User: Fold this.
Amino acid sequence: MALTLQPNIPDQDGFYQELLAVHDGLDKAESDALNARLILILCNHIGDREVIAAALRAAK
Assistant:
């Protein structure tokens, strides 16, 4: 499976608002911890080490 880098999320603005809302009221440490948990959950869901490695390279 190849890494998808083109927009692929329906209702991108709605997703962004939801992402911001889940961080509402959190301090920096709590927000960072939420992001770390979210990353691990999504990587586990993907499950393909090559795709995850490609994502890490793309993010860097």
Remarks:
- Residues 27-60 form one domain.
